[in-house]
Amino acid sequence: ADDVKLQLKWVTQAQFAGYYVALDKGFYSEEDLDVTILPGGPDIAPTQVIAGGGADVTVEWMPAALAAREKGLPLVNIAQPYKSSGMQLTCWNDTGIAGPEDLPNRTLGVWFFGNEFPFMSWMSKLGISTEAKGEMGVEVLKQGFNVDPLLQRQADCISTMTYNEYGQVLDAGVSPDELITFKYEDQGVATLEDGLYVLEENLDDPAFVDKMERFVRASMKGWKYAESNPDEAAEIVLDNDASGAQTEHHQQRMMREVAKLTAGSNGALDVADYERTVKTLLEGGSSPVITKTPEGAWTHIISDAALK
Amino acid sequence: MNTQTTTQADAPQAHASERAPEAVVEAKNLDLVFPTNDGPVQALKDVNLTINKGDFVSFIGPSGCGKTTFLRVMAALEHPTGGSITVNGMTPDEARKQRAYGYVFQAAGLYPWRTIAKNIKLPLEIMGYSKAEQDKRVEQVMELVELSGFGGKYPWQLSGGMQQRASIARALAFDADILLMDEPFGALDEIVRDHLNEQLLKLWARTNKTIGFVTHSIPEAVYLSTKIVVMSPRPGRITDVIESTLPRERPLDIRDSQEFIDIAHRVREGLRAGHGDD
Amino acid sequence: MNTQTTTQADAPQAHASERAPEAVVEAKNLDLVFPTNDGPVQALKDVNLTINKGDFVSFIGPSGCGKTTFLRVMAALEHPTGGSITVNGMTPDEARKQRAYGYVFQAAGLYPWRTIAKNIKLPLEIMGYSKAEQDKRVEQVMELVELSGFGGKYPWQLSGGMQQRASIARALAFDADILLMDEPFGALDEIVRDHLNEQLLKLWARTNKTIGFVTHSIPEAVYLSTKIVVMSPRPGRITDVIESTLPRERPLDIRDSQEFIDIAHRVREGLRAGHGDD
Amino acid sequence: MTLVFLAVLVWCLGWWLNSRLANGASADTRAVKLLVPMIFGVTVLLVWELLVRGLAVSMVILPAPSLIAERFAASLPILWKDLAQTFLKGALSGYIIGCGAALLMAVAVDRSDFLRRGLLPVGNFVAALPIVGTAPILVMWFGFDWQSKAAVVVVMVFFPMLVNTVAGLRETSAMQRDLMQTYAASYWQSFFKLRLPAALPFIFNGLKISTTLALVGAIVAEFFGSPTVGMGFRISTSVGQLALDMVWAEIVMAALAGSFFYGAIALIEKSLTFWHPSQRG
Amino acid sequence: MKTFLSVLTVLAAIVAFWYAACVPMNIKGVLDTAERGGAEVMPATSKARRDMGTFGLVAGNTFAIAQTWEQDRPRLPAPHQVVTELWKTTVMKKLTSKRSLVYHAQVTLKATLMGFVIGTGLGVLLAVGIVHSRVMDMSVMPWAIVSQTIPIIALAPMIIVVLYSIGVQGILPKAIISAYLSFFPVVVGMVKGLRSPDAMQLDLLKTYSANTSQGFWKLRLPSSMPYLFTSLKIGIAASLLGAIVGELPTGAVSGLGARLLAGSYYGQTVQIWSALFAAAILAGLLVALLELIEKIVLKRMGMQQ
Ligand SMILES: Nc1ncnc2c1ncn2[C@@H]1O[C@H](COP(=O)(O)OP(=O)(O)OP(=O)(O)O)[C@@H](O)[C@H]1O
Ligand SMILES: Nc1ncnc2c1ncn2[C@@H]1O[C@H](COP(=O)(O)OP(=O)(O)OP(=O)(O)O)[C@@H](O)[C@H]1O
Ligand SMILES: Cc1ncc(C[n+]2csc(CCO)c2C)c(N)n1
Ligand SMILES: [Mg+2]
Ligand SMILES: [Mg+2]
């Protein structure tokens, strides 16, 4: 069997259910693959891991991948299981925030570590400075791993994923009508999340391309299975979580929300989505993530072959 | 061995006829046992001793016989496990609170972060002497022990003997009633020793201090003391107490007198007996 | 002051007529300056001395006159800043490599993690004696310094005097040609001291070692030595070298002879002169 | 490959030069004492540069020192802002509060045998709490700004400092204490005249350990939430952007600031504990 | 015995203070929950409460005090919550279960011990080199200090990636990070210890013309023993911290670090605290073990009175 090492963007959770399902259901071994899934975490930059040869393929958000490409690490998108973005800004209703125009003079929690680019683009589009609080500026906090800043009211708004942190806020006893959320999709600044990326040079190797074809095929099979069997998928994720910290309830809900985001994708990258992402990123204000339109940042060779 | 009881019983009375003696230290059936991990060590056993005001008492005996320990008991640095001891009619602890003691340790024990002058000044600072008085006294005692000019040096820059002299100066700088000295002159040569012996006698005569003095030198003990306590080890006890018949005024050449030689002889015999014991 | 040069120049010749002297230590115009932060200290100045094989040389002088320093120079523990010194015709460093020295320090300096017996064994281990030989020798020297039975104790379980005796035993345990002793008997009482003096003389007679000996006691220096070096401080220099006319066989009561008293007198005068100097 | 060979050569050369200097006649001069570690450092940097170039190591894994230096020079204003936030506000205030509180506590602990016996084991336990766990809690309690970083630093430096000071205050010899007893010195007299000076070498030991802990603690705490300025913030964001040259520029800044801090404390130590055998050399 | 009593008293005081602290720390969360549950709260809205002092809130809502010790996601969990969680995740779980703290502790312990061995071994060797070679002393020591001013948490991911790229993975990268943290205290302590013999002790060996290795084995090493153990005790605690830090960039899949992170990720404060305590207890056990060895060794050497 061929070895494949997959580096995830974050810890083991239903966000990556498709891969775990493919592994657990034997979809990978059917394709004669021996897949190792490497969980990520707050201290892991998947792009760095793949650059160091620690993985063959990685799950990454497109802004980070394109940024890495500009830094001289030629990552190529070979498949895009997530059709739409799950990122949003979640605020307390009682702070008086009703629309984006109310954001100035607020304190907002934002994820950094390569995940700040969509937010920066959005702010720049709104003409809001992220340097300091004021009439036309917001105070930005580097948000940690959890939703405490919102619950403790250290921030008026924080970044959440529809499938994860938002649920955690609700789990803390907050009811949805206490909150107001701004989906990046709705604001027109959505960027592609959770694509599969490999190093460009590897694509010259037919054996590697063949391996990836089979990998994408099996992964998509896993994703579709997970979409239709969310509870079983959540169970599989739980079985694979070595930290023993995840709860069933949370993973089941996450799986359902994730299914909404992956539903529209068959695995192939939609070029229109790609171009919208690039456009958003190029407009990223004073210090844009990427400064010029990337070339060759994606390929359909693999998805085409895999999905035919 | 039984000279002990007789001598001691007689002594105070003998003196009493001359002038009314005032007991400064009274030890009765003193015992002191150190608990160590390989069994208890009896450092002092059944020690009885009276020291009168103005006495100059020397302690002599083989090493390990408890001289240091007895001095420490007097200064309330060690507490007896049996018997009783009073100093000026109080417990040693109370006496210490009244700053009755000047103590010279067997090793110099200067503070390395203070210069010699500042080391000597230490007790004066603690006892709240005025700045001017402090400087005056430091000057005086440094001269007494022949260390003038070394005030600004740190202890490690001095030879062993010089350090020891500094520690003597430190004990003389303030007016303690009772001066306890543990082999203060051990590291000094004979000339300095003679000089310091003379100075010490002068000081004693002038101030009427009570002095407890440990030494290994028989001539030194005889020359200085009004009372010589001979001790023997394992367990540490007093084997002889010799009342000196020498006058209080003692020129250095008194050491050639027959009386001196007789006393020295008696001390030596006592010592030898102690050594034979073990 | 000029006794120095004459005595020294004469001495080797005077001896030479009796038996062929073999120079073990030869110091010529030796200078030693310690650099300290408040200026240099001249510890030795223009020291000239010859020590012959089998000599017993005592160094006596006020504290701080450089006795320890000179002993350390001989043992290559300190390096002179001027002049020259040879030991057995070599530099002290080379002599040390040949394990020519036994050294007793001014303080006992026992290793706290070794028992008394193991402390004495230390040099034997280093010099590669056999196990059996080590045990035999430790037994012997412990007896010599009257410490038999204390072999299993740790240093802190002994009084100061006992520790000092252990350190003497340590230096005697191996066959060094040259024995250097820095106030070895300072902390001992007269009886033990007399005993150890006798033992040391016997050992010296038997082994024909060359001995350098620092003491503050005039009688001790006279009783033990074939040559007495009187030093004076600031700067440290030799003021007198006295060749003893006493026979090599010396019973304890030789100390009452006129010859003894005369030599002692000359030493005392030399010492007094050194003190007057500063 | 020639570059790799050159690296080996440079290493040998540097070592040889240092051996000559350190064992030479002027080894004790101030200049040589500075020069030797400098040469060592330069050698390491050269070897690094040559190896990275020789083995064609990707810049996103380990950038060459020359690139780092370039980035450092180009980003001085940012580096300075980050330093002010993390070092001056977070680390330094935490250091002062933590060490000061530990000193006071040490005096209390030292006065009472009961406290010493009871508090020290508990203190050792608290000292063993891993910072990775305490930092998020303290960020939650004290907010995102420098106050929470200072709190992390306080927790980190408090117990090393306490343990050292308590040990130092007990360091006096029996004879030194006995001397004070014969003077019937009061507690505070013997504290200021004997125990404090005697404890100084230990106190400085604690202060020196704490300098390295303080900066590292403040930086680590920023990983768990911070405003958008600070060395830890910059490092974690830059890693995400694969701006490894910036990461290393911050690390260099941290090392510079930390070493400077350590050096300053060591200098004060030298002037206050000149009498201690370890300083007399 | 006396020690035990004192520790107990201090502990009791701390626990009492801890419970008291829970009240103001958690009151806002409790009141928010209560408000959502329809209870009468003073003041009524969360926004108004945000601007009020905690003690005012406590005074106004005394009914809520008991609940501050029972919250699900408290800002400060009450002692019994932590103890219960510890109990549940150690004694009540199978040792091999992923939810057992014992399992995670054992994962961390392996890396810790390996790092400790590497770190102390390296530290001792370095110290020996520094004491015996002036070049080492002058050139390495300052850089050893500099190495400790580098934030390891920033370096750890890079160490892992670099090691990964040369094919080293598994427990070793974690152990190396752990060693990086533990070598320094050992170097410093051992250098001090190996230099602790006083001038006279060194001079004595000189008069015997003992060679360097004899000086090392017979004098320097024995006199460094107390220092060695002190630094070993600091070193093992540092190793544990290093292993935990090293767990983060390896995906934090198991080990106490993973538990800490997961707890933090999901805002499970009780879980964080219990993992924290588990780490501290583990450190305590390791230090206690070293202390025992120290006692035995020093007693054997006659250095303890
Ligand atoms: N702290 C202690 N613990 C155990 N034993 C002790 C202690 N102090 C002294 N001893 C023992 O008590 C006895 C008396 O000791 P002390 O120091 O009083 O003797 P000394 O007469 O002063 O001897 P030296 O002339 O050698 O100074 C000795 O056997 C000694 O070993
Ligand atoms: N390491 C040193 N640094 C500076 N000065 C020193 C050092 N060692 C000794 N001295 C000085 O050198 C002089 C001679 O000292 P030395 O120890 O040789 O005297 P000594 O004759 O042995 O005295 P003592 O009888 O008191 O032991 C003294 O003035 C002393 O202060
Ligand atoms: C330090 C840190 N950086 C980024 C994220 C955000 N993040 C990375 S993957 C992912 C998907 C949701 O699980 C999210 C939100 C975080 N949480 N913590
Ligand atoms: Mg004594
Ligand atoms: Mg001397």
Automatic annotation (TrEMBL), chains B, C:
Bias-annotated ranges (Low complexity): 1-15
Entries under PROSITE patterns matching the protein: ABC_TRANSPORTER_1 (PS00211), ABC_TRANSPORTER_2 (PS50893)
Gene3D superfamilies found in the cross-reference section: P-loop containing nucleotide triphosphate hydrolases
Pfam family, one: ABC_tran
Domain ABC transporter: 27-258
InterPro entries named among the record's database cross-references: AAA+_ATPase, ABC_transporter-like_ATP-bd, ABC_transporter-like_CS, ABC_transporter_ATP-bind, P-loop_NTPase
Renumbered residue ranges of the record's region Disordered: 1-20
Keywords attached to this entry: ATP-binding, Nucleotide-binding, Transport
GO-annotated molecular function: ATP binding
UniProt KW Cell membrane keyword: no
SMART domains in the record: AAA
Protein family according to the UniProt entry: Belongs to the ABC transporter superfamily.
Protein name as annotated: ABC transporter ATP-binding protein
Organism: Pseudophaeobacter arcticus
Highest classification ranks of the organism: Bacteria, Pseudomonadati, Pseudomonadota, Alphaproteobacteria, Rhodobacterales
From TrEMBL, chain D:
Subcellular location: Cell membrane
Superkingdom, natural source: Bacteria
UniProt-listed PROSITE patterns: ABC_TM1
Record-annotated ABC transmembrane type-1 domain positions: 84-269
Sorted UniProt keywords: Cell membrane, Membrane, Transmembrane, Transmembrane helix, Transport
Membrane topology, record value: Multi-pass membrane protein
Main location: membrane
Membrane-crossing residue ranges in chain numbering: 34-52, 92-110, 122-144, 150-169, 202-226, 246-268
Family stated for the protein in its record: Belongs to the binding-protein-dependent transport system permease family.
Protein name as annotated: ABC transporter permease
Species, as recorded: Pseudophaeobacter arcticus
Automatic annotation (TrEMBL), chain E:
Main location, first listed in the record: membrane
Mode of membrane association: Multi-pass membrane protein
Domain ABC transmembrane type-1: 101-294
Presence of the UniProt keyword Transmembrane helix in the record: yes
Species in which this protein is naturally found: Pseudophaeobacter arcticus
UniProt entry keywords in alphabetical sequence: Cell membrane, Membrane, Transmembrane, Transmembrane helix, Transport
Keyword Repressor listed: no
TM spans (from-to): 111-131, 143-165, 171-191, 227-252, 272-293
Lineage, uppermost ranks: Bacteria, Pseudomonadati, Pseudomonadota, Alphaproteobacteria, Rhodobacterales
Cellular compartments annotated: Cell membrane
Record family assignment: Belongs to the binding-protein-dependent transport system permease family.
Name of the molecule in the record: ABC transporter permease
